[in-house]
Request: fold
Amino acid sequence: MSDSSSDKKTDAQNCAMDANSTHDAYDSFAAATGAGTDVSRRDFVKFCTTIAATMGLPLGMAPRIAEALTAAPRRPTVLWLSLQQCTGCSETLLRSTHPTLEKLILDMISLDYHETLSVAAGHQAEAALHTSMKENKGKYILVVDGSVPMKDGGIYVKIGGRPGIDILRELAADAAAVIAIGSCAAWGGLPASGPNPTGAVGISEALGGKTVGNIPGCPPNPNNFLSTVIHFLTFKKLPELDNQGRPKFAYGRIIHENCERRPHFDAGRFAHEFGDEGHRKGYCLYKLGCKGPETYANCPAVLFGDTGAGTWPVGIGHPCFGCTEKGVGFTVPLHTTAKLKYVTPPAGYPHIVEEQGGGAGIAATALLAGVAGAAIGAGAVLANNLGKGEKSVTEAEDPDAGEQGKKE
Amino acid sequence: MSETRPLGGKIWTKPMKVLSVFAALGLFFIAKRFLLGIGAVSNMSDGYPWGIWIAYDVVVGTALACGGYSMALLIYVFNRGEFHHALRPALLTSMFGYTLAGVSVMFDIGRYWQSYNLFIPGRSQFNSVLFEIALCIALYTAVLWIEFSPSFLEKMREKGKLKLLNRVLFVFIALGVLLPTMHQSSLGTLLLIAGSKVSPLWHTSLMPLLFLTSAIAMGYAVVILESIISSISFRIPFETKMLGKIAGVVPYLVIVFLMVRIGDVVYRGQLGAIFNGSLNGFVFVLENVLYLASVVLLLPRSKRESKQRLFIAASCLLFAGAGYRFNTFLVGFDPGPGWSYFPSFSELSVSLGLVALEIMGYIVFVKKLPVLPGRSPARNVMKVVQ
Reply:
C-alpha cells in the first residue's frame, strides 16, 4: 500500500515538474522573443504538447520540446528553398492553425529565407540568404519544396541567375538537416512523372543519396512537417525514417488500415460509380480507384491540410490518389484499382441478414388466386345479372317494387 | 319479427356439397395443427407472429361480422325501428363471424390450453389491449348468441321463456352495442405498439378511430350484400327499398373516414410514401380508390335503389375495409430485414374451411329457424311461371 502511494506521489511530482519546466521554458522564451510576444503561456504549452502527441512521443516530452524551442539564444534558423514546385506546400503551411503561420515564423523559428513569404526581394533576398548561411553555418535547417531539374545542367530552375541544383548543393552542404517537403521534393512528384522533360528528381537523389527527411504529400499536412522540424530541434536528429526517408510516425501505416470507410470494404459495400447509391451512402471507394490500400500516410488520423473535421479526400467521397507514395501518385491512373497489400475482398460475402419465414408456395398462391378469381368472377356475373334484371323489371313495371309496397 | 319464418327446403344441396369439401379440408389441417403444432401447417415466424389467421379470421372476420353491431346502432341508438326485420339475418352472420373468430384464435395461440386464464380476474393483465380484445370478443360472442336466441325459442315454441328473455334482452342489446365499439377500435390500437414496423401509410395514433368507423361501414356493406345474395339464392323478394335507406348512411360515414384517413397521412407528411413506387403505395391507392368508388356509387340518392349499384358499392366497400385491415396487419407490416411471410396452403385452407363452415351454418339456420322474411306466394308463382 505504501509502495503504491509513493508511486502515485512520484507520478504527481513528475507531472508537476514537467509542467513547471514547460512553464519555465515559456518564461525564457517570452524573454527571448521580447515582451511583445503574441504567444500566450497557455498556447505555448498547448503547442508543445500537440507536437509531442503528433509524433507519438510521451507527454513528458513537452518540456523538452519547450526547452529546445527556447534554449538557443536565437530562434532556430530555417532556410526555405523553392525549386520546381507549385507553392502548394507553402500554402499548406499558411493553412496551419496550431500554431498559426505568423506565430511560427515570427515567434518560434527564424525563417530567414523563403521566396514567397520574404519581405525582401531580388538581390536583397539573396543577400539575406547568404548572410544567414554564413552566420548559422552547420546549424540551420534547410527545407526544400519542389523537385530538382537535372537535365541540361539544371537550367530549368534558376534563382538569381544560378541553377537550382547548384544552390541546393551549396545550402545542403552546411545544413544541420535537410527536410524535403511535398512529393516533388521527396521523389520528384508531378514534374518527375513521365515523360519528365526536365529530368526532375527528388532532393535526396539530387544530393547523391544524402539522408533527407521526406514529408511527401500534395501538399502534406503541415503538422507532419512541423513535427519533424521540432523533433530535430528537440533531439538534434531526424525522427525514425522508413526506407523512403519518410518519418515513421506519419508514414508508418497504410491509409486503408485506419480509414473511416474500412468497415464498408470488409463488408463488401462499394461505391461503383460517382453518385451511385453506394457513393451517396459513403461506401468504400476502393472500386473507384482509391489508392488507400497501397499508400502510407496518416491522413485518416490528421486529415488534410488542417482544414477541419472530415475533410480529407476519402472523407468527402473522392478516392485517394496516393500522393505520398512514389510510383503511385502522379503515376498510376486515377481510377486504376489499387494493389492490395493484404486482405483482398472476396468475390462473395455472407448475408448480413438471414432470410427467414415462408415465401409464397405454388399451392398456396394457386389456392388464393383461385378463390380470388372465383369471388371476383361470381361477383361480376352476379352484378351483371342484377343489372339485366333491373332493365327488364323497369320495362315491365317493376314487380319487386310492387311487392315491397304491399309489405309496407 | 312475425314476418320472419324458416325457409325450409332441402339442406343437402349442391352448394352445401361444394362447401363441405372446403370445410373438410380446413378441418383436416386444423386436426394436423393440434397433432403436430402450428409450425407444421403455418408459415408464421418470429417476425410474423400474426399471420392470416389473425389478419383475416379475427381482424377482417369480426369486421365482416359487424352487421349486427351496425344495425343495432341504427335501430336502437338512432331509433330507426323500420330496419328491425333486417336485424336477425345480420345478427346471424355476426354470430357465426365472431364465433369462428374466437375459435380460430384457439388455433393461433400456441398454448391454447392456458386460455381459460383470461376469464380468471386474478390472472388477467388489465393493461393489455390484447386482453381487452380477447375478453370483448368472448363476451360479445356470448351476447350475440343470446341476442339471436329468440329465433331458437320461437322455433321451439317456448313462449314463456321467450317472454322472460324479451324482458331482459335490452341489457344484452346495450352490451351488443358497447362491446364491439370497444374491441373494434382496440383492433386498431393493437398495432400502435408496433411503431415503425408498420408503414407510415397505416401507422397513426388515429388507428383506433379508423378501425372503428371502417368496421361500422363494413357492417352496413355486409348487410346489403348478404340481403341481395340471400334474395337471389333463396328466391325471396329483394328488399331494395330498405337496403337503399341503409346505403344512405354509408357514403357520409366513408367520407368522414376518408377525410380522417387521408388528412392524417397529409398531416404527418407521409404523402410521399404513396408515390415511391412500393407495394405499400400501390395497395394504399387501391384501398382508397375502392372506398371512393363506394362513395361515388351510393352518393346519388335517386340511384341507391339499383340492386346492381348496391351490390357493386357494397362489394367495393367490403374489399376496401378488408384491404385496410390486411394492409395494416400484413402488407404494410415489416418486422425488419430478412423476414418474409406468405400464408401456406394449409394455413389458407384452414381460413377457407372456416368461411365454408360459416356459410353452411348460415344456410342451415335460415332454412330451419325464423331468420329471413319468408317467400311470398306471389313471388313463388312468378318463379314458376318463369
